[in-house]
Write a structure and sequence with these properties.
The protein contains four helices and no strands. It is mostly helical. The chain has one domain. Helix 3 crosses helix 4. The longest helix has 11 residues. The model has no long low-confidence stretch (mean pLDDT about 80). This is Transposase InsH N-terminal domain-containing protein.
């Protein structure tokens, strides 16, 4: 890391969202969930591509406790 990168990193304000996601990552076994759910995740040949499975799992599991 360069000095400029370290300085920029210290200036960034951490949002509540970022802090929440950093706390949730070690608590939820993402690899196991992706493995179990991966066989049911649809794969389209045409049209708009679906969101990646890891993204969809994180959205679902992180919004449930917040009742969003």
């Amino acid at each position: 890391m360069t000095f400029a990168e370290l300085e920029e990193q210290n200036k960034k304000r951490q949002t509540r969202r970022k802090i929440f996601l950093e706390k949730m990552d070690p608590l939820i076994p993402w690899a196991q969930l992706e493995k179990k759910r991966g066989q049911y995740h649809p794969v389209k040949a045409t049209g708009r591509p679906d969101d990646p499975l890891p993204t969809m799992l994180r959205i679902h599991y992180n919004t449930q406790p917040l009742n969003v």
